[in-house]
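Deliverable D5.2: sample structural annotation.
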Amino acid sequence: LAAFVEANGDAMEVAQPQQAQQERRNLADYAIQYKLLASQGSDFHYPSPWMELGRNLWLPAGVEPVWKDWGIDPSLDVSK
């Protein structure tokens, strides 16, 4: 991650639907440590009975969402 930041990387994916909470927390801790914005991915490739698009996506508390400067209403917070 240090090399990524040095190359001007500014965000990383932190949350995915079928992810253990500890893995999500670890990724959030890396984002905080390296001052990276956090995103979430649906991992959606096609309709499926096993996963609903956008389900089980939330960002852990303490991370800064990648969309923070996009003019989105802050009351729509998806952090947990």
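Annotation notes: Residues 19 and 56 are 9 Å apart (CA to CA). The first strand starts at residue 11 and ends at 15.
The annotation will be released with the project's public dataset once the embargo ends.
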